[in-house]
């Protein structure tokens, strides 16, 4: 699309916070959707030409299967069609899609609570200003917080129960609205 612009976020965020950052940039902005090999190559080229991406290995894009496991869609509502999955992907127990845009451009699914850099898309005609990079993220203290943010399938999510450090926790979103957790250890 000729009126589509990209913004590469080099500050690492969980998938939901990356989408919130994009939406705060302007009303029609989202994590990017990619409908063709041409669009995938364009997004990859923008990433490669962005300074300060050397610490970024994966980039959140707008693909997910949060609504129904195995039924991928784009956060902006565009139809899912093209995909550039890496070998062995997607893993159906991980809901959010990231791209290795800096290297081979292939996609994989990851837990939405992982922290990655991200790619926003926005369209010409809207504001070009972006929110400050110090935008505070929403704290997730337990699985219920993830449930309230839209997670509906079981999996490993990042939580910060005491404000002193994040942990990976298994959240069973199918029972009790995400009330059960088993800690897996600190996040590096």
Automatic annotation (TrEMBL):
Upper classification of the organism: Eukaryota, Metazoa, Ecdysozoa, Nematoda, Chromadorea
SMART domains, A to Z: CLECT
Source species, domain of life: Eukaryota
SUPFAM superfamilies the record matches: C-type lectin-like (SSF56436), Fibrinogen C-terminal domain-like (SSF56496)
Boundaries of every C-type lectin domain copy: 1-121
Coiled-coil regions listed in the entry: none
Protein name as annotated: Uncharacterized protein
PROSITE patterns tied to this protein: C_TYPE_LECTIN_2, FIBRINOGEN_C_2
Gene3D superfamilies cross-referenced by the UniProt entry: Gamma Fibrinogen, chain A, domain 1, Mannose-Binding Protein A, subunit A
Pfam families the UniProt entry points to: Fibrinogen_C, Lectin_C
Record-linked NCBIfam families: GGGWT_bact
Fibrinogen C-terminal domain: residues covered: 134-188
């Amino acid at each position: 699309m000729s009126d589509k612009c990209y913004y590469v976020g080099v500050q690492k965020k969980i998938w939901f916070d990356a989408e919130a950052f994009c939406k705060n940039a302007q009303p029609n902005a989202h994590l990017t959707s990619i409908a063709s090999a041409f669009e995938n190559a364009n997004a990859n080229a923008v990433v490669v030409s962005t300074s300060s991406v050397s610490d970024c290995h994966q980039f959140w894009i707008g693909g997910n299967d949060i609504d129904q496991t195995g039924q991928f869609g784009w956060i902006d509502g565009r139809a899912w069609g093209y995909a550039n999955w890496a070998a062995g992907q997607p893993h159906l127990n991980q809901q959010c899609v990231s791209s290795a845009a800096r290297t081979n451009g292939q996609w994989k699914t990851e837990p939405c609570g992982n922290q990655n850099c991200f790619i926003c898309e926005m369209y010409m005609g809207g504001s070009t200003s972006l929110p400050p990079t110090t935008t505070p993220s929403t704290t997730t203290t337990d699985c219920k917080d993830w449930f309230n943010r839209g997670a509906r399938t079981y999996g490993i999510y990042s939580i910060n129960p005491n404000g002193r450090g994040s942990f990976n926790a298994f959240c069973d979103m199918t029972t009790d609205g995400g009330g059960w957790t088993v800690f897996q250890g600190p996040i590096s």
